[in-house]
Design a protein that fits this description.
CATH architecture of the largest domain: Up-down Bundle
Order of helices and strands: HHHHHHHHHHHEHEEHEHHHHHH
CATH class of the largest domain: Mainly Alpha
Largest sheet: 4 strands, parallel
Strand content: under 5%
Number of helices: 19
Helix content: 55-70%
Radius of gyration: 30 Å
Structural class: mainly alpha
Oligomer: single chain
CATH superfamily of the largest domain: Glycerol uptake facilitator protein
Shape: flat
Length: 540
């Protein structure tokens, strides 16, 4: 489960990619410069192990994409926020760059000796034989060579195809191993199998292109070699093509490979198939008191009407300069921030669905005190005198009345800066609701039809089974659609609760088609209990 701010997620991607490059590019340095390996499999195995360790280290922080191609594929097919793609990609590139710098600091002596004994002039033709310890080349200089004959064996279209297909397989297996519906994939070993998948792909693709499969893994180290003297041998390379072969091809391959997996799973998934008798066991136990919290969360998050989540409450206008500054600051924030509104204290809801900020003008006139009298809890309090004094704008002898606009501008900037993380969450909540709206509308149609059905009376005829079978398929397909929406981590519980309700609904319908009234009634009641708060919102 991914938690934390975008900054912490980017730090996770930075560190994870650094770890990946340190082990992966590190074993290439050790193999080429010191000859410590006996074959390609040892290099591939270390690469795979490095990837697995990097995923274990950062998976809970950022999701451990560690590869811009995987990030883009997640955005296209799994709902990863597009706004995070640039930050993730830059973090991955920075991690790869720093990991390569660390390796150069460790291996520069061996590298200089290697170049000396092989008469390699760094930056001259043929120096890709040493530059390959950082960026990749096609064909693999250590295996095929760097001569004209070697170039004819692996052309640029061949290299692009190899990188694209290799990354397509990698992305498809990443999607398969992280698929929530894939019950054969236990969670703990997933990074190990991803690493194993990478190692196998490296064994096949490395002789052709050194198996980049990752734009950050190639460009970060390649940039290091460019800055350390290889120049045009590093960028654009002796044959060019680093942009098309090692950046564009993996990006396209990942999107295509992940897309093929998504299409196949939709095509091959057969929700209408009969389940074994054991599969009809209750999805969840009878509702316990603690489960009421889950229902409350579902009502609060999944179906609550879209409201402004930031309410600014300045103190009442009592004629003081401080009150004028507080009110003007609130007006400026609202004018430039679409997710905020300004209200009086008595207009604020008593629930916790809105983030309420009290803007206090002075100790004599507190908006937070007014909220407290009304039973409304402020999520935050901004003290205008404290903020402006800290900024050096209010001092003894300063004519505050003559500087209301200037001081309000400064206070508004402070409020907006402090609300940045809250506003980001507001946008994510709004996006989640927008994604959920068509799903909920489809559910409403299914539910109304199911509620109108009478309990089965014996085994129904084939014609009578058609309608419930269709509703069952729609319920399971809706389950799949819901599973494709990736909500923020704090919404996972109501999300899972609704999925369980959809499965109960499907089980109930399958019980109806089998003529088993007890199975129908039991699972229908479970669905009804779990989605009751959601239905209240739908019907309101």
């Amino acid at each position: 489960m991914v938690r934390g701010s975008l900054l912490s997620q980017c730090l996770g991607e930075f560190f994870g990619t650094l770890v990946l490059v340190f082990f992966g590019v590190g074993i290439v340095n050790a193999a080429v410069l010191a000859g410590v390996t006996q074959g390609l499999w040892q290099v591939a195995a270390v690469w795979g192990g490095g990837v697995a360790l990097a995923i274990y280290a950062t998976g809970a922080i950022s999701g451990a994409h560690l590869n811009p191609a995987i990030t883009v594929a997640m955005t296209v097919w799994r709902g990863f926020p597009a706004r995070k793609v640039p930050a993730y990609s830059v973090s991955q590139l920075a991690g790869a760059f720093c990991g390569s710098l660390i390796l150069y600091g460790m291996f520069h002596g061996l590298l200089a000796h290697f170049e000396a004994i092989h008469h390699i002039l760094r930056g001259a033709g043929g120096s890709e034989v040493s530059a390959m310890v950082f960026g990749e080349y096609f064909p693999n200089p250590a295996m095929i060579g760097a001569s004209g004959e070697a170039y004819r064996q692996v052309t640029m279209p061949t290299a692009m195809l190899a990188e694209g297909i290799g990354t397509a397989f990698l992305a498809s297996f990443v999607f398969a191993l992280t698929e929530q519906r894939n019950t054969t994939a236990a969670r703990l070993p997933v990074p190990i199998f991803i690493g194993l998948c990478l190692a196998i792909i490296i064994m096949i693709v490395a002789p052709l292109t050194q198996a980049g499969l990752n734009p950050a893994r190639d460009f970060g180290p390649r940039l290091v070699s460019y800055l350390l003297g290889w120049g045009r041998v590093a960028i654009p390379g002796p044959r060019g093509g680093f942009l098309t072969v090692y950046i564009l091809s993996p990006l396209i391959g990942a999107v295509v490979g992940a897309g093929v997996y998504q299409a196949l799973t939709r095509k091959l998934r057969q929700p209408e198939a009969r389940l074994a008798e054991a599969d009809y066991a209750p999805v969840v136990a009878d509702m316990e008191p603690r489960d009421q919290e889950h229902i409350a969360a579902a009502e609060r998050v999944s179906m609550s009407q879209v409201e402004p989540s930031v309410i600014l409450v300045p103190c009442a206008d009592c004629g003081r300069a401080g009150c004028r500054i507080a009110r003007r600051a609130a007006e400026l924030v609202v004018a430039t921030t679409g997710e905020a509104v300004m209200r009086a204290a008595e207009q604020c809801p008593r629930g916790s669905k809105s983030f309420i900020v009290a803007v206090d003008a002075s100790s004599l006139c507190q908006a937070s005190a007014e909220l407290q009298k009304l039973g409304v809890r402020a999520g935050a309090v901004v003290s205008a005198p404290e903020v402006l004094s800290r900024a050096g704008l209010v001092r003894p002898g300063v004519d505050v009345q003559a500087r209301v606009e200037e001081l309000a501008q400064a206070l508004a900037g402070e409020i907006k800066a402090s609300l940045e993380s809250v506003l980001a969450e507001v946008r994510e909540r709004r996006h989640y609701r927008e994604e959920m709206a068509p799903v909920m509308e489809r559910f409403r149609g299914i539910w109304s039809k199911v509620e109108a059905m009478a309990a089965p009376n014996g085994t129904p005829e084939a014609a009578e089974r058609q309608r419930p079978e269709l509703l069952s398929r729609r319920s399971r397909n809706l389950f799949a659609k819901l599973d494709e929406i990736v909500p923020p981590a704090q919404w996972s519980e109501p999300h899972d609760l609704f999925q369980d309700a959809l499965l109960c609904l499907a089980y109930a319908l399958e019980g109806w088609t089998a003529g088993e009234a007890s199975r129908w009634e039991q699972n229908l009641e479970k669905a009804r209990v779990q989605v009751k708060p959601l239905l209240r919102r739908l019907d309101s």
